[in-house]
Design a protein that fits this description.
The protein is about 65% helix and about 5% strand. By secondary structure, it is mostly helical. The N terminus is likely disordered. This is Nucleotide exchange factor SIL1.
Length: about 425
């Protein structure tokens, strides 16, 4: 079959393959009108068809055939819908009224009550999860408890500085504060609200425990933190620390104060200059010569060793690499530490500390003697007690080093101490 797609045309000149319209058929005074259906039907000669009908020529039979258009079928479907009949869905065509009707049914379906299965699921969810209102209340309570480090430090400083706080509460606040200021950022944040100065002022307290724990906090805050060290010097911390060391105080308080002093002086040449100007070497000399202060004496000697070697390394590094800033190098060169040690009698004081019984203390004293050798060589040679002590220690550590070798330790601890003693004896001959 071959179908002509024009809905308003039929062929009247079949032999020539030309088309004529349905209106031309009516013009031929045809009296009979053919009523097409949705199926192809043969059209007899002389029959007329309604406007808009499909007409085609069947090439196999030579007859003309006709049927209704699809929109007529759609209209019939709408008529059937109005009569309550089922819509023919094969047309795949919907009107706006159809869409509105479908949408209304969709909304009605959404408002239908949940099935028993849905209700059971909702009940299970309620058992497993708490209402959002309860969670909000819990979060509000947690927000009160959770504090930043800054907020905690402010609260601890306020507690320590409050006149209504007991001695135990003040000590507890300082003890907790020391934990936080170990972090460099926290220690610097302590400056932003004046907390550092409050702790420094705590060194003036008449309570030895307050002095002790205030120094404990300061020592942690000063450690490797130049910004805090500078603020501490400007806040008068150095003077207050030296006053405590120079006066009668419990040994535990002096330990913490000495710790804070060491943290303040290390890697801070300006503070070292001020330390010398304020008579710091004299204060330390009196400290180590007092009875029952052997533990402090070892710490003082260690501090002096660190300061001497730090200055020496800074100057050597500047000459080799030129990386040290000119200002800092100039500050180190202004620290007249070695001449001050010689003038204050530290050559003899350090040599006498070699008689301490602990191996660790002897090690630190030997290191300091080596660092002061260039400055104190003649003083060492004039001290007969130092020579006797070195010879005695040489024999002792020779025996201990031999035992280490027998145990398979070629480079043991006692062998290193023996090497330091042999080097000193060689230099002093």
């Amino acid at each position: 079959e071959f179908a002509l797609t024009s809905p308003e045309k039929s062929s009247t000149k079949e032999a020539e393959g030309k088309e004529t319209t349905a209106e031309e058929e009516l013009d031929s005074e045809v009296l009979e009108v053919f009523h097409p259906t949705h199926e192809w039907q043969a059209l007899r000669p002389g029959q007329a068809v309604p406007v808009g009908s499909h007409v085609r020529l069947n090439l196999q039979t030579g007859a003309r055939e006709v049927k209704l258009q699809e929109e007529d079928k759609f209209r019939s479907n709408l008529k059937a819908l109005k009569k309550g009949k089922r819509l023919d869905i094969n047309t795949n065509t919907y009107t706006s009224q159809d869409l509105k009707s479908a949408l209304a049914k969709f909304k009605e379906g959404a408002e239908v009550e949940s099935s028993k299965e849905d209700k059971a699921r909702q009940a299970k969810v309620k058992r497993l999860f708490r209402p959002i209102e309860e969670l909000k209340k819990d979060f509000e309570e947690l927000n009160v408890v959770i504090e930043t480090d800054m907020q905690i430090m402010v609260r601890l400083i306020n507690k320590f500085n409050s006149s209504s706080s007991s001695l135990e509460e003040k000590i507890a606040a300082l003890f907790d504060l020391e934990y936080y200021v170990h972090q460099m950022d926290n220690a610097q944040d302590l400056l932003s609200f004046g907390g550092l100065q409050v702790v420094i002022n705590g060194l003036n307290s008449t309570e030895p425990l307050v002095k002790e724990y205030a120094a404990f906090v300061l020592g942690a805050a000063f450690s490797s933190n130049p910004k805090v060290q500078v603020e501490a010097i400007e806040g008068g911390a150095l003077q207050k620390l030296l006053v405590i060391l120079a006066t009668e105080q419990p040994l535990t308080a002096k330990k913490k104060v000495l710790f804070a002093l060491c943290s303040l002086l290390r890697h801070f040449p300006y503070a070292q200059q001020q330390f010398l100007k304020l008579g710091g070497l004299q204060v330390l000399r009196s400290l180590v010569q007092a009875k029952g202060t052997e533990v402090l004496a070892v710490r003082v000697v260690t501090l002096l060793y660190d300061l001497v070697t730090e200055k020496m390394f800074a100057e050597e590094e500047a000459e080799l690499t030129r990386e040290t800033s000119p200002e800092k190098l100039q500050q180190y060169r202004q620290v007249q530490l070695l001449p001050g040690l010689r003038e204050q009698g530290w050559c003899e004081i350090t040599a006498h500390l070699l008689a301490l019984p602990e191996h660790d203390a002897r090690e630190k004293v030997l290191q300091t003697l080596g660092a002061l050798l260039a400055t104190c060589r003649d003083r060492y040679r004039q001290d007969p007690q130092l020579s006797r002590t070195l010879v005695s220690l040489q024999a002792e550590y020779q025996a201990l080093a031999t035992l280490e070798l027998q145990d398979g330790e070629d480079e043991g601890y006692f062998r290193e101490l023996l090497g330091s003693i042999n080097s000193l004896l060689k230099e002093l001959r």
